[in-house]
Amino acid sequence: MKHLMLTFLATTLIFAVGCETGTNPISSSSDSDADGDSDSDSDSDSDSDSDSDTDSDTGEAICDELDFQIEGTPVAMVILLDRSGSMSGSKWTQAKAAIENIVNSWESQLEFGFDVFPDGSTCGGYTDRCGTLNPVAQDCAPLNATNIITSMNSYTASGGWTPLYCAMANFQNPAAYGAGQCVGTNMNSYIVVVSDGGDTCSTACNTASCEGSGVSAADLGTLSASLFSGGITSIAIGFGTGAPVAQLQAIAQNGGLGVTDGYFSATDGPALQAALNNIASSVISCVYDITITNEVDYNSVNFFFIDSSGTETVVPYDEDCSTGFAWHWVDPLTHEQIEFCPDACDLLQGGDVEEIKGEFGCLQIVPD
Questions:
Q1: 132, 183 Cβ separation under 8 angstroms
Q2: pLDDT by residue (tens digit) across 23-43?
Q3: Residue 344 and residue 327: Cα distance in Å, rounded?
Q4: pTM of the model
Q5: Within a 10 A sphere around the Cβ of 218, how many other Cβ atoms?
Q6: Residue 162 has what pLDDT?
Q7: Parallel, antiparallel, or unpaired: how do β-strands 264-266 and 327-329 relate?
Q8: Is the pLDDT of residue 121 over 90?
Q9: Average pLDDT value for residue range 225-229
Q10: Is 236 exposed, middle or buried (0-12, 13-18, 19+ CB in 10 A)?
Q11: Nearest-CA neighbor of 251 among 289, 291, 220, 279?
Q12: Comparing C-alpha atoms, which of 34, 68, 64, 40 is closest to residue 52?
């Protein structure tokens, strides 16, 4: 899905659209080429296409090419990676490979950001990140995979402590933290925490003497709820067999998704990649804003999904979504948004659609 930018990333999609082979244009009565324009067709406009922008007898718009905009709600996702000593070796290599795969696969639909836990060698976060804010490793942006991979490869896993609380707490003030592009009033923002252990530092002090005293699951639940109130949904992945069940549950339960236990458990690299893929697909909305600057017949609108081989699949119009694979107007009175119905939405979220194509002015395709 390299061209379907819902942006999900600043994304505004602009398509030039028109009738496709096999569709039925609105008929116009025949004209002679006595219209005095410079082309050789029988319409009354002076362009060089073979259709009419308006029927010369009725003045009504017929099947023609128009420019329009379709945009989904931008989705920003920060992957927050544990880099404590227990993550070193093959686990660190597997985690990086899984993240690299996900950002490459979904960068056209999600605005990815990336960050790591503070230095765990001395619980440095409590005198470093939690005290004096350092910039996020990579702020969210469209088509950000290369930058994230470069940033991720500059870090190693080391140190004996896990400042999980501190790593998340910095996002309470993302603008000051240099993560301002990851949170916005018109976007959906997520933090995906990947950790193989519980917090082993303390929220009660900012010196190394408190190392190892720990943070409770309740503390992380309160923090997760605070982030959600500020517009950030938190999702947790336990990586490895020793992941802290209670702490990750608290993050998930209070993170805004309304789950009762619901953190992801990934025992190895492929499982982590699957969990990240599941999360990436599930946060994609199937509701799109539509901006049409030309006057059109809203009963003459069609949409097509195009896959990686260029094959076009008609997505029929179905007002009540009873057929599943269809689309409809969110509000048929305003025509400002469309929604793809559940089966069509599943195809979008599964990564099987490279492009959405729209058509205005041609007879609407409806289910048989």
A1: no
A2: 322 222 233 344 444 444 444
A3: 8
A4: 0.71
A5: 12
A6: 84
A7: unpaired
A8: no
A9: 94
A10: buried
A11: 220
A12: 64
Q: What b/e sequence results for 242-275 when a residue is b if at least 16 CB atoms lie within 10 Å of its CB, and e otherwise?
A: ebbeebbbbbbbbbbeeeeeebbbbeebebbbeb
The residues, ordered by sequence, that sit 6+ positions from 338 with a Cβ below 8 Å of its Cβ are: 70, 287, 288, 290, 303, 327, 328, 329, 330
Contact predicate 61/23, CB 8 Å: no
For residue 111, list its beta bridge partners. 76
- Per-residue pLDDT tens for 173-191? 888 888 999 987 778 899 9
pLDDT value of position 39: 44
51, 63 contact by CB (below 8 A) = yes
Note every long-range contact of 208-213, with CB atoms under 8 Å and residues 24 or more positions apart, other chains counting. Answer: 208/122, 208/123, 208/127, 210/123, 210/126, 211/122, 211/123, 211/161, 212/161
The per-residue pLDDT for 133 is 63
Q: How many CA atoms lie within 13 A of 123 on its CB side?
A: 22
Token pair of 126 as six digits: 């409590």
361: left (phi over 0), alpha (psi -120 to 50) or beta: left
How far out from the chain centre does Cα 226 lie?
22
The Cα 332–Cα 30 span in angstroms is 33
Q: Residue 108 is encoded by which pair of tokens?
A: 């056209």
What backbone torsions phi and psi does residue 93 show, to the nearest 5 degrees?
Answer: -65, -45
Check: CB of residue 9 under 8 Å from CB of residue 142. Answer: yes
Q: Taking a C-beta distance cutoff of 8 angstroms, is the pair 178, 222 a contact? A: no
